[in-house]
From TrEMBL:
This is Envelope stress response membrane protein PspB. The gene is pspB. GO terms for biological process: phage shock; regulation of DNA-templated transcription. The keyword Transcription does not apply. It comes from Tsuneonella aeria. InterPro entries: Phageshock_PspB.
Amino acid sequence: MEEIIIALIICVGLPWVILHYITKWKTASTITSDDESLLDELYHLAKRLDERMDTVERLVATDDPGFRPARLMHDREADNAPLRELDRLIAEKKGTAK
């Protein structure tokens, strides 16, 4: 009787445990649709905050002509090219390529 139980554990239990954790590992390493929507929401929030910072910097620059922002400059081609590429990839991923 003990031999049958040990044989069942080896033939059924062990492969089941291995396959179970392989499945858990594969599903944990992928981005879910919830994760993707959260990233999209965070991306749009970052763009809005960047626009607000541009506005604040323009207002401060009008009051103080010597003001030089320490962050990326507004509408500089070197900064905008990667952002356009990111926008294109996001639109392509959603199927709304421009």
